[in-house]
Amino acid sequence: MQFCQIERFLEDIIGLRRFKNNKEIFGLEFGKNYPYRQINKIMLTVDISLESLHFSVMNKINMIITHHSFLKNPVSQFDNLLTNKLILLTKNLPLIYTLNSSFIYSKDGIFDTLIDLLYLEMVKTDLLQTEEKIESLFKITKPKLLMNESTFTLRTLLNRILNNLNINFIEYVGNLDRSIKKICLFAEPKNKIEFLKKKVNYGCDCFISFDFNHSEHILADDLGICLIKIPHYRVDLITMKKLKNILSLEFPNEEFSIFERSEYFKIFEKNL
């Protein structure tokens, strides 16, 4: 497979180019852009960590596809961590292709994965954008009732998340017995408070995102709406695994692997 083939598939077929943020790193982040370079061992990872780079060296990877970028900010000086990562990269000189926030919004991306896993039905999808960049994309959905369900409450939704993401806890704001009609999935609009108010007026009574602050918790409690903080790394990893399967079917002669590690944040529980 040539690099230009997988680049075209990611950007045009999956649709990553449509949702790229011009203020973020997107596409080829490390390595020379030779369109006809032969690629045969590809690793997918959520982040570029030292551990993931060791994995790439051991497995002779020549292309890394990562959700989050290798360099978060412009480099003003080289510290020991960056130097160690660059040393590992010189072993095989793999290409690093960065998806960044476009992977949240694209076809078969993070939002689409959540919609499929939680058995939701699309009602509306739209972009919040300026001339410079996409501020956010949101998807408004409604729940599908399963055979054993007569009503759909916040408790029902939380149980779906726990079971289908295979996690043990979830952070939320709201009344567990509240009936849920419309669920809004969104990333990071510039003014989240105003965004929540507008979508409440549209009929949304539950919001799923990666993080909420104290002011947003208070607003939700005052408005009687529900907030759910989805575990970012877990959903990222599930979606990267799905992308690996899609790429394996599209390019069956190449070798695709996934770098997987445990959650960064662990739970310390009180012994009773």
Please render the helix and strand layout as text.
Blueprint: H1 3-13, E1 27-30, E2 41-45, H2 50-58, E3 63-66, H3 80-92, E4 95-98, H4 102-105, H5 110-117, E5 120-129, E6 134-143, H6 154-164, E7 171-173, E8 183-186, H7 192-201, E9 206-209, H8 214-223, E10 226-229, H9 232-250, E11 255-258
Parallel strand pairs: 2-3, 2-11, 3-4, 8-9, 9-10
Antiparallel strand pairs: 1-4, 5-6, 6-8, 7-10
Helix pairs in contact: 2-3
Overall geometry comes to globular
Order of helices and strands: HEEHEHEHHEEHEEHEHEHE
Radius of gyration of CA atoms, rounded to a whole number: 20 Å
**Distance between termini?**
56 Å
CATH arch. level architecture of the largest domain: 3-Layer(aba) Sandwich
- CATH superfamily of the largest domain, called what? NIF3 (NGG1p interacting factor 3)-like
Low-confidence stretches: none
Beta-strand share of residues: 15-25%
Give a quick account of the main beta sheet: strands, pairing sense, barrel closure.
6 strands, mixed
